[in-house]
Design goal:
Shape of chain A: globular
CATH class of the largest domain in chain B: Mainly Alpha
Number of strands of chain A: 10
Oligomer: heterodimer
Radius of gyration of chain A: 19 Å
Order of helices and strands of chain B: EEHHHHHHEEHHEEEEEEHHHEEEHHHEE
Number of helices of chain B: 14
Shape of chain B: globular
Helix content of chain A: 10-25%
Strand content of chain A: 15-25%
Helix content of chain B: 40-55%
Number of domains of chain B: 4
CATH topology of the largest domain in chain A: Alpha-Beta Plaits
Strand order of the largest sheet of chain B: 2-1-14-15
CATH superfamily of the largest domain in chain B: Cytochrome-c3 Hydrogenase, chain B
Distance between the termini of chain A: 33 Å
CATH topology of the largest domain in chain B: Cytochrome-c3 Hydrogenase, chain B
Structural class of chain B: alpha+beta
Strand order of the largest sheet of chain A: 2-1-5-3-4
Largest sheet of chain A: 5 strands, mixed
Number of strands of chain B: 15
Largest interface: A-B, 17 and 19 residues
Distance between the termini of chain B: 33 Å
Bound molecules: iron/sulfur cluster
Radius of gyration of chain B: 22 Å
Number of domains of chain A: 2
Amino acid sequence: MPVVTLTVNDELVSGQSGQSLLSLLKELGIEMPTLCHLEGLSDRGGCRLCMVELQGSKRLFAACVTPVQEGMVVYTHTERLNNYRRMILELLFAERNHVCAVCVQNGHCELQTQAAKNGMDSVRYDYLVPDLPMDASHERYVLDHNRCILCTRCVRVCDEIEGAHVWDLMGRGVNSRVIAGLNQPWGDSDSCTKCGKCVQVCPTGALTLRGSTVAEMEKQHDFLKWILTGREKKQWDYS
Amino acid sequence: MTRTITIDPVTRIEGHAKITLMLDDSGQVEDARFHVTEFRGFEKFCEGRNFWEMPGITARICGICPISHLLASAKTGDAILGVRIPPTAAKLRRMLNWAQIVQSHALSFFHLSSPDLLLGMDSDPALRNVVGLIQKHPDIARKGIRLRKFGQDTIRILGGRSVHPAWTVPGGVREPLSAENRDLIKEMLPEAFDTIDLALTLLKDASAGYEDEAAHYGNFPSLYMGLVTPEGGLEHYDGLLRVVDSGGKILESGLDPARYREIIGEAVEPWTYLKFPYYKPYAYSGPSYYKMGMYRVGPLARLNVCEFAGTPKADEELRAFRQLAPQGRAVNTAFHYHYARLIEILFALEKIAETVEDPHILDERVRSRADVNQLVGVGVSEAPRGTLFHEYHVNEEGVLQKVNLIIATGQNNLAMNRTVQQIARHHINGNGGKLTEGVLNRMEHGIRLYDPCLSCSTHAAGKMPMHVEVVAADGEVVDEIIRD
Ligand code: SF4
Ligand code: SF4
């Protein structure tokens, strides 16, 4: 693959053409905040936390869906970017009901971690305090809309890795919801294989193991790497 | 005849205990209301969540005795799961509860009440607190702080965090006890025993100077309710509900706590969000129908309902405690809550000492797993302040449809009003309803006897912020004091 040269935070660096800017920044050891991105899943540029500034454009670009290009001049942590990142996080907290102290994910939550890392010490917006249900119809897992940030990791892992495509998004804007099947209780879904991949990739306390108590839920997404490497190396032969 | 006035509880000054004294036509104190407003809206808030989260949620919302809510909530969860938890889990939960009793009672006695007792109710209010105590009796103050710390440390060792250990969960507890941690608890015990001996001596010496208080502070007949073991012994975690009257007669000897609704009703009043639980069989019809069913809970009640404590030292003290009332009758003076609290600390320490020697206490099987098997669960345990009831109704999925909580402070509310009224009558009548600092202090002490779970009443450093109004028969406020 041809090599491209670009400038990142005033330093000359090189990357592979076709590579996403986010993956290059990670290789360079630059810590980029992300929520919807997960190694092994397709990128959608949804959460906007990985936004960067590109010289010559007033727009901001989500690094996960921006390919590296020859001569690009990139800034990753300007004041403007840091401000927007905090704002995005605050909006996420204001949109649904995040009561960390009583959340099953407390202490192991990616949203919480990002808020702390990005210096979000308060929320400047009015909380919407929506009245959202909890779907506890599944025999193994629970979906709590109050904690969902609509990152669609669950949608993508179920579709791209498990191949079941149980999850989808419904509605627009603040009315968007993840739905199981054709908007039915999760437990009624015929296509759910009960594999739990969605639960493990969910960054927040929205998808959890049934029976988890406060601050007890911890997730691990190593399985994604194993599955993808195994598939790539054709470790499993089903013929 | 008094005029009925409705006081919007919201007008209460945040963090202040609000008391309204109502005078009759002749200017005598007719009634007193202690407004408890901090505990509200809480049950509604939980609906729609699932019951597994409840120990964590209730412990968080009600910060004064989180451990008690953790336990009652976990027990309610056990009932919904329909499981019997591993015996070691039950022992660990009991130990957690005893540690909570030690820390809470030590706070009440040493930090909040002993300044009144040891420095005098009329002493300078600026020094009638733990700071003044440290100045005058540094050794006692230090030991009191250390005793409370024993409770807190034990809670932390067991639960991983001192304030909100979500360690107690439906089905048992999250982590077993390690040998190392058990030994840590063991090592702290001897000092704790020494301190409680000292506290008992102190209280007995100080009480001699408080005969007037002992006679007038909450000395009235009432019913008492608490848990007892199946054999009738002192109990804090499980067991059966017992109700006795002031004559010592047993009205309910051992009701399954899950059937509490058969004997407890909850009355509402327009002037407070707090409900008034009452003993149903004693209620009659009429506007204050429920007041006859007034019962008290907490240390005094627990010692009144049980037949014995079940540990040698506590039983010895219990015999002395019984002497405070004529043979066979209940001890009716709220002033003796102090003594009851110390006896319970002693009992809790003896029980902890017993438990750390239990050969099965390090067992690793401490959590039973199950799903929803019952749609209604009731969990009852004894909080330091009294019997705590949690009742959850869930759907098949475990999502809460209805929550009912009955807290100790609510159950003591009628008795607290009565106590304040009694003290006010004794000290205010005859001076046209004028409030003095000494009266305020005594009302404060009267409330503190019940150790209500309100932030205003647990200010460790200093006097209780109070807002007292005296309302004449025509509804006019004739005196008002706000003390910060
Ligand atoms: S999902 Fe994360 S951020 Fe939201 S309440 Fe739970 S712990 Fe807090
Ligand atoms: S449920 Fe979890 S993974 Fe799915 S969209 Fe919501 S936050 Fe993302």
